[in-house]
């Protein structure tokens, strides 16, 4: 094949890509030819994996080849750029990377992503290792020799003992920084190469010209990135090419400009390669290389190995900074399980630093560097990527294990961006706030920072200072109070102005949108009105939440009409609604004082023309409804009242929500409307007027015949909720309508719709059983046998469906058998239904997924609750008991075991358990399983072991209390060798019950005492010696529990 002729061992192109080949122009073209072989054809096919690996090896060899001596910088940069582009193409077509070659690929990407930046060396290590502690750092310690002291800045070379002089120098340095904010500290100690190579004692060779290197050494630091102004490198670099400062000819300046352009492209493509690598590599494997790409501790005042933040903070190319942010987002995305161990503790001088503390330090440093970048970034596209990176990071960090303060700094710095002139930035900022409200909610820190901040002028001056995580840094240039922000460039002024706007009390910001506020736009009347509202709010004791107020102004049509302002674009409004939805979910106290206002606002949103806004408004109503149900049912003294929740629903049900449910052009909106109606809650629904009851039921029943299956499924699901409401469950006509809707739903082709119909059918069966127990004959006599047979047919048919449908079908079958009246067993058709139900449950108890088996065992217990069931003589009973015995003894899922054991406590008479052999087998199974609970094979089931033991003891006590004289010999056989263990388990069972003061615990104690008395009664019936010995053994076990 031609591929072997081109890139085979003796291939035509191989001679031109060898490291020793000198002509870089030809080598560049050969590299381009090699990687073009990997492009997909018109059908999307590529060359074989073997040839892809060959091309990968060729490109890696070129990238790892050092720069030859006396080679033009531009020519070499073009070669590297072409090779990296080829590597990017390779990474886009291969499916995975060999873990053995991952370290070398990351090493190449890490070097070239910084190629051409000031202070960075072009030394490609052979590989990187995923262990952060295996590398030795040979860089010399600071202040150890006279030479190094001469090279350090005065602030760095001060001896430790001369603290007074050091403070003076810090003060002088601060004054100089204030006067000249763009001046950087003196040159740092010699930078060390990556992965613990030998220290570089001379300034590293850079592709830039000599005069640029000298300027960089005078004004830039080579190691850390501790300045609060992360764009100094960018502005200095841009300034170096200015015509007023250049000491060289136009040709040399043009050459330098071309070089910088190519180097920026090299860094961009290298970061693209790194991004592709991070996306296709397993998160667990990639996490091991974090120490090479991210800082582990603060870099303030000390040189540090270059990381991604070197590019984010210092690269003058906006595309390169954006690509670096994409890499960082890819790294932290999905890392929640790995960052969960991070913690932050008070600093201690110990010989060992726990890994969790190191991880916490890394997380904190990531926040600090991103905040620095956010303060300095002026490019809109890069700022967008930066905010997206923040949003991804926030949802993966365990803030509850870290010291408070990180989120406060993030909120304070992102808040001014809500008034940014670009709507994309506003959307990205709202995304960050959505992440903040969703992480480990509710957090006390978030609760505090979301409340109204002081409008005093001093508050604004302190905000930029909060951007730095380490106040001890003497190299940063902090903006002083009253000092006009300096370049770079206009963004700093815009940022400070935005902070001043946003830090005004939110109660006085109701005159216009934040995005259109200008200095001096607040009139005296507006101020007086705002102060009046503030006083009223404080008198009512309601803490205003500035983010909620801002979002309401963005989405409220009425506010725009009153103030004469224009509403923002749709993406901003929809994102603001999503933020409020998350706020309602995690921080309900924020929105509770404004429920009536929110109801009116979202009534207007549901009536708008834009379907995206309507859908987000419907999701907000759905989420608030779900939270209101929990709040109303909460036993807390300050929980929401039924009337407060009803006041939220009345405006919505008076037109907007019914209109949304009848919007034939928007399927998702109709489905969402059904979910909204399902979340009204039983207490609130009962308080609604009768016409609203009729409206809700009529709408839902009508939507069960909708053209879209998703709407039909949502309507059936809502009806399944309504059948449990006390004010509706006694209405037989309504129950019949729900049964008809379930019948239609179970005939759907879509699995989700059938699952929802089966779930609603299970709720319907729960309701009729509840009505039978509460209302008795008044309900059962009026319940049609035809309807009952229809329900049996539906459930039996569904029991042969998918496991999701089957798990609810078996629940329905158990309830229906429990509902049967005694005279129903005289009818052959119902006897057949009972026999078919027993056969289905027997099969489902033995096999199937855990949820099906769990529900099947629960259904068997419901069956046994019908006293008219002929358990002792039914032909299907032995197989059903055998299935329960098998589940108790062999099932790996402890929840299935618990429910199977619980089912054996339901039969109240000895004859219900059948023959002596069957009874003794069940008793022995319980005893053997109780003894065997010491062995837990699956650790995930360990948390259910105590519950299983308690239920086994209860069932064992129940069966022992029903045992007759004829059962004793069989029980003695199963008791051999287990007496002491059963004695210990029953003793602990008795002690645990006595520690509880519930009615159920008291009942179980009485049952245990009753079992002991029953054994003593059997012993007093003139038994033979063998039977008396058995009774004595049993009595000894149970007597020990009563002592």
Automatic annotation (TrEMBL):
Per UniProt, the ranges with Basic residues bias are 160-171
* Region annotated Disordered, chain positions: 130-253, 460-538
**Compositionally skewed regions (Basic and acidic residues) per UniProt:** 144-153, 172-183, 486-500, 525-537
Q: Extract the InterPro entries matched here.
A: ARM-like, ARM-type_fold, DUF4042, HEAT6
Question: Where in this chain does the record put each DUF4042 domain?
Answer: 265-446
Q: Which domain of life is it from?
A: Eukaryota
| Compositional bias segments (type: Polar residues) | 467-484, 503-514
Write down a Pfam family by its short name. Answer: DUF4042
* SUPFAM superfamilies in the cross-refs: ARM repeat
| Compositionally biased spans, kind Low complexity | 223-234
Q: Which PANTHER family match?
A: HEAT REPEAT-CONTAINING PROTEIN 6 (PTHR13366:SF0), MALARIA ANTIGEN-RELATED (PTHR13366)
Q: What is this protein called?
A: HEAT repeat-containing protein 6
Q: Give the species.
A: Branchiostoma lanceolatum
Q: Which classification does the entry list for the species?
A: Eukaryota, Metazoa, Chordata, Cephalochordata, Leptocardii
């Amino acid at each position: 094949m031609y591929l072997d002729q081109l890139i085979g061992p003796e291939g035509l192109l191989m001679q031109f890509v060898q490291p020793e080949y000198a002509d870089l122009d030809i080598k560049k073209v050969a590299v381009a030819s090699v990687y073009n072989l990997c492009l997909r054809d018109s059908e999307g096919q590529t060359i074989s994996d073997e040839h892809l690996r060959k091309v990968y090896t060729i490109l890696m060899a070129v990238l790892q080849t050092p720069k030859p001596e006396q080679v033009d910088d531009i020519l070499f940069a073009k070669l590297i750029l072409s090779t990296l582009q080829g590597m990017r193409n390779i990474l886009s077509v291969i499916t995975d990377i060999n873990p053995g070659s991952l370290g070398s690929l990351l090493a190449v990407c890490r070097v070239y992503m910084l190629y051409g930046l000031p202070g960075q060396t072009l030394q490609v290590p052979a590989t990187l290792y995923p262990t952060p502690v295996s590398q030795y750092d040979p860089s010399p310690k600071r202040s150890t020799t006279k030479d190094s002291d001469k090279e350090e800045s005065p602030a760095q070379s001060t001896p430790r003992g001369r603290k007074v002089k050091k403070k003076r120098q810090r003060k002088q340095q601060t004054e100089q920084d204030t006067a000249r904010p763009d001046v950087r500290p003196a040159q740092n100690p010699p930078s060390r190469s990556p992965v613990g190579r030998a220290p570089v004692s001379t300034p590293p060779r850079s592709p830039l010209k000599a005069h640029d290197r000298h300027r960089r050494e005078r004004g830039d630091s080579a190691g850390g990135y501790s300045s609060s102004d992360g764009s100094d490198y960018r502005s200095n670099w841009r300034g170096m090419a200015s015509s007023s400062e250049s000491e060289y000819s136009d040709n040399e300046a043009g050459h330098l400009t071309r070089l910088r352009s190519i180097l920026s492209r090299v860094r961009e493509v290298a970061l693209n390669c790194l991004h592709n690598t991070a996306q296709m590599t397993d998160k667990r494997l990639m996490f091991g290389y974090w120490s090479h790409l991210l800082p582990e501790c603060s870099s303030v005042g000390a040189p540090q190995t270059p990381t991604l933040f070197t590019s984010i903070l210092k690269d003058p190319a906006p595309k390169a900074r954006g690509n670096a942010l994409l890499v960082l987002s890819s790294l932290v995305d999905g890392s929640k399980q790995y960052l969960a161990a991070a913690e932050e503790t008070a600093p201690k001088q110990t010989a060992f630093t726990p890994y969790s503390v190191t991880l916490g330090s890394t997380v904190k440093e990531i926040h600090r560097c991103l905040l620095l970048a956010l303060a300095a970034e002026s490019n809109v596209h890069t700022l967008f990527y930066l905010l997206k990176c923040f949003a991804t990071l926030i949802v993966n960090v365990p803030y509850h294990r870290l010291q408070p303060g990180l989120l406060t700094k993030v909120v304070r710095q992102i808040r001014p961006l809500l008034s940014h002139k670009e709507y994309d930035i506003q959307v990205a900022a709202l995304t960050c706030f959505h992440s903040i409200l969703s992480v480990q909610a509710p957090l006390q820190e978030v609760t505090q920072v979301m409340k109204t901040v002081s409008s005093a002028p001093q508050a604004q001056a302190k905000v930029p200072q909060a951007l730095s995580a380490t106040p001890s840094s003497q190299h940063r240039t902090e903006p002083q109070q009253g000092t006009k922000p300096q370049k770079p460039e206009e963004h700093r002024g815009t940022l400070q102005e935005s902070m001043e706007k946003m830090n005004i009390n939110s109660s006085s910001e109701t005159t216009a949108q934040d995005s259109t506020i200008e200095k001096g736009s607040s009139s005296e009347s507006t101020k007086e009105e705002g102060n009046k509202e503030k006083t009223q709010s404080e008198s009512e004791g309601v803490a205003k939440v500035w983010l909620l107020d801002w979002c309401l102004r963005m989405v409220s049509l009425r506010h725009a009409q009153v103030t004469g302002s224009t509403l923002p674009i749709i993406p901003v409004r929809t994102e603001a609604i999503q933020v409020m939805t998350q706020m309602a979910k995690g921080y309900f106290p924020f929105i509770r004082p404004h429920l009536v206002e929110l109801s009116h606002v979202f009534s207007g949103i549901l009536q708008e023309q834009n379907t995206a806004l309507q859908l987000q408004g419907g999701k907000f109503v759905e989420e608030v409804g779900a939270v209101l149900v929990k709040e109303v049912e909460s036993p807390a003294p300050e929980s929401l009242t039924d009337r407060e929740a009803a006041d939220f629903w009345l405006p919505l049900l008076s037109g907007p929500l019914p209109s949304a449910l009848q919007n034939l052009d928007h399927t998702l909106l109709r489905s969402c409307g059904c979910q909204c109606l399902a979340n009204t809650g039983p207490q609130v629904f009962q308080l609604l007027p009768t016409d609203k009851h009729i409206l809700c039921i009529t709408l839902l029943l009508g939507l069960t015949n909708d053209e879209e299956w998703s709407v039909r499924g949502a309507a059936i699901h809502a009806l399944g909720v309504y059948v449990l409401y006390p004010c509706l469950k006694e209405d037989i006509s309504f129950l019949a309508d729900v049964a008809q809707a379930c019948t239609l739903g179970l005939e759907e082709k879509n699995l989700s719709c059938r699952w929802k119909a089966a779930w609603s059918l299970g709720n319907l069966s729960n309701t009729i059983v509840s009505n039978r127990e509460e209302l008795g004959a008044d309900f059962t006599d009026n319940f049609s046998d035809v309807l009952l047979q229809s329900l049996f047919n539906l459930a039996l048919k569904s029991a042969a469906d998918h496991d999701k449908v089957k798990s609810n079908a078996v629940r329905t079958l158990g309830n229906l058998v429990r509902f049967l009246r005694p005279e129903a067993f005289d009818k052959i058709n119902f006897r057949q239904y009972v026999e078919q139900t027993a056969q289905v449950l027997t099969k489902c108890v033995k096999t199937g997924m855990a949820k099906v088996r769990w529900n099947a065992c629960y259904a068997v217990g419901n069956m046994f609750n019908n006293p008219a069931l002929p358990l002792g003589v039914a032909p299907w009973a032995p197989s059903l008991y055998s299935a329960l015995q098998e589940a108790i003894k062999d099932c790996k899922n402890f929840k299935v075991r618990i429910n199977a054991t619980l089912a054996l406590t339901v039969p109240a008479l000895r004859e219900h358990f059948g023959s002596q052999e069957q009874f003794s087998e069940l008793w022995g199974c319980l005893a053997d399983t109780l003894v065997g609970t010491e062995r837990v094979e699956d650790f995930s089931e360990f948390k259910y072991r105590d519950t299983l033991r308690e239920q086994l003891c209860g069932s064992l006590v129940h069966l022992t209390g029903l045992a007759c004289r004829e059962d004793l010999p069989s029980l003695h056989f199963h008791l051999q060798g287990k007496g002491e263990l059963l004695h210990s388990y029953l003793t602990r069972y008795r002690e645990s019950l006595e520690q509880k003061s519930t009615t159920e615990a008291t009942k179980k104690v009485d049952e245990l005492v009753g079992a002991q008395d029953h054994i003593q009664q059997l012993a007093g019936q003139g038994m033979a010696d063998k039977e008396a010995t058995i009774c004595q053994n049993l009595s000894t076990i149970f007597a020990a529990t009563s002592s």
